[in-house]
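INFO batch 0412 | record 1 of 1 | parsing
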Amino acid sequence: MKQDETCIFEEPKKKLVMSASEKPSSSCSVMSTVALARDIDPLLKDLNEKKQSFKRNVVSLAAELKDVRNRLASQEQSYAKETLTRKEAETKAKSMEFEIGRLQKKLKERNEHQEVYSFSNCIKRYKATRHYSKHVRDTG
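INFO prediction complete | emitting tokens
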């Protein structure tokens, strides 16, 4: 050790400082290493435990984030499918409304045509009946 260096080692709740002028022995180095190792070992264990806990938390949060992203993607896909289905249903409903209107118009035209045809047939039968009656009277 140099003249102005000090030998520092800690014991629980006690700090010992030994100056170079006090002629430290070679055991100071060994004692300080042992004391430092004894004091640092619990600190390292605690730090290591905190590090492991932090890693577990990060892994857990990453898994949760992945799960949330998957659920979000699933919901977005479901929403897109629902939107498409709704648009298809709206298009089909409009098409059906148009078809119903077209069929109603066609039915109305047929009914009108049928009425004209029925009326025409009625007149023809009336005329035929009159003609037959006149013929029966004339021949009889």
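INFO post-check: The first helix runs from residue 26 to 139.
INFO record closed
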